[in-house]
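Final report, closing paragraph on structural work. Over the funding period we assembled a curated collection of sequence-structure pairs, and we close with a single example.
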Amino acid sequence: MIGDATTGSTTDAAGRDLAWYVDDLRRRGIHRVHVLAWRDLDDVDAGGSEIHADEVMWRWAELGLDVLHRTSFAEGLPHEADRNGYRVVRRGSRYSVFARTVAAEVSRRMGPYDALVEIWNGVPWFSPVWCRRPRLTVLHHVHGPMWDQMLPGPLGPLGRFVETRVAPPFYRRGLTITGAESSREELIEIGFRPERVVSVPYGVHARFRPGGERTSHPSVVAVGRLAPVKRFDRVIRAVIEARRTVPDLTLTIVGRGPLYDDLRRQIDSVGADAFVRLAGRIDDDELIGLYRSSWLVVSGSIAEGWGLSLTEGAGCGTPALATDIRGHRNSVLDGETGVLVEPDRLGAALAELLTDRSRLDRLAAGARRWGASLSWERSVLGLTAGLHAEVLRSQRAAN
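Its predicted structure, as stored:
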């Protein structure tokens, strides 16, 4: 695709833009689209997957599609709401939402629809079994080791078995969109057909752009849900290690989640409260300010589909230091926009980078170029082109 990420002018190789695809979908009878997801953007546990879904849905709604987003109930939020031009329905717990949603869709209690998008986030909706409309699957990554972090006892291996052995055969004929080439490779490894999996890179909102000045002292920021898979405890230990060489180093952790109290205890137990701050969930303006002022964005995750905080940081001109895992290999260009290391080298690498300003400057320049090349317009265009292709395929099969 070609286009300017800063202006939103994006077309595919044939010169078709997002409006063309949506108009043609409507000409072909696609007016109502249902999007199934585990959580929605306003959920306290929302993350990159929910941001991705919202970027797609509000653009579709703006161009005239009737979009219904079906997700689980979240405490403190209404069962139904309107957001950015599309409708949100939150019913069912984190676990019962799957059965309740499938029952509602099969019985048409949620109203008729012309196309379906299933966002498979760990637990599949098995839409190929019951959906008879054009459909598309969005699968950000295989959860792999995350299952043992998410579910207790034997449930973790069971979740992994369903994700990697039970579900894939049902999805092989349909089109699956993922955000990174490494995730595409992983899906192929568990049985997806190579020709039916397409990687469409995620975007960075234009508001994440360079500006302001770095802090006078070395500072790093880590952003994400405070969950076991993110390994913020590892980041804290890395900062403590690096402070032996860089004594004025500080860390800000942004996000909320179930491990907040554990991280608070870890910080208190080692007397790190003077240089580690748990900022909680903050607004975009404050987050952008942190990205811009920090010397590095750090991630200690054990599994990711991408690494949205790392590319948001890149958009602000801040390089990354992250664990060398599949998802990070697509969001960080190792040696150009940041550095990828084995988990046990985070502390040493942090000290090395923070004491080499010329190398940091080179990485920051690469991060600025990389961040500017990523746009949500391109990402949504690629996904919409995929849905369009599935509609054409379905209509050809019917004729």
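The chain has a mean pLDDT of 92. The chain has two domains: 2-203+375-398, 219-373. We thank the funder for supporting this effort.
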